[in-house]
Specification:
Elements lengths: L6 H9 L7 H11 L1 H15 L3 H16 L4 H14 L9 H22 L3 H21 L3 H10 L6 H5 L1 H12 L1
Helix pairs in contact: 3-4, 3-6, 3-7, 4-6, 6-7, 6-8
Length: about 180
């Protein structure tokens, strides 16, 4: 019996920019696409609990690289060494919504680290717990709030699977083109 990607999981992954990826690949890679967020969650939790700017700042270049390039550094490590162990294919590149999320998280971890460095613990805790909470949510449920923010600002492009399946989106776009 083959696994089926639920409609909810499909929509959550489309919001992150994986609408172009076939369901069978998403079923294989679904857990591993969360791996960078799991790393952020673990280090963010430790950095915030121990008020460590250095632990929080480790994630700033990691998140910035994830924002700048379609293949996150953690995905590169997975693709290079771990996928042979797991028996899965390479992870698909990350589209703009997911990269936007990595950039936002890098900014949150930077602010949290600065807050603890300058001994303004309120800022450190606020930014640290926010970033850690967002990464735990994404790791556990694939609900990526920064990607939702991105979609709220920029919407869905005509190339996404969501666009192709949704008559409402196509109708709304045609109506706005006529106006």
């Amino acid at each position: 019996m083959s696994e089926v990607l639920s409609p909810t999981a499909r929509v959550r992954l489309e919001i992150q920019g994986f609408g172009h990826v076939p369901d069978d690949l998403l079923i294989q890679a679904g857990l591993w696409l969360r791996l960078p967020f799991m790393v952020y969650a673990f280090l963010g939790l430790l950095g915030t609990i121990f008020l460590s700017p250095w632990l929080l700042w480790v994630m700033v270049p990691l998140g910035a690289a994830g924002a700048a390039y379609p293949v996150h550094p953690v995905d590169r490590v997975y693709n290079r060494w771990f996928r042979t162990v797991t028996g899965t294919g390479s992870l698909p590149p990350r589209a703009a919504p997911s990269r936007f999320a990595h950039g936002m998280l890098a900014a949150c971890f930077l602010v949290a680290g600065l807050g603890f460095w300058e001994e303004i613990e309120t800022i450190g805790y606020a930014a640290g717990w926010t970033a850690t909470g967002l990464t735990v949510l994404t790791s556990a449920t694939n609900i990526c709030v920064p990607s939702i923010v991105y979609r709220g600002i920029f919407g869905f492009s005509k190339g996404t699977a969501e666009w192709r399946r949704s008559p409402e989106l196509r109708h709304d776009a045609r109506a706005s083109q006529r106006d």
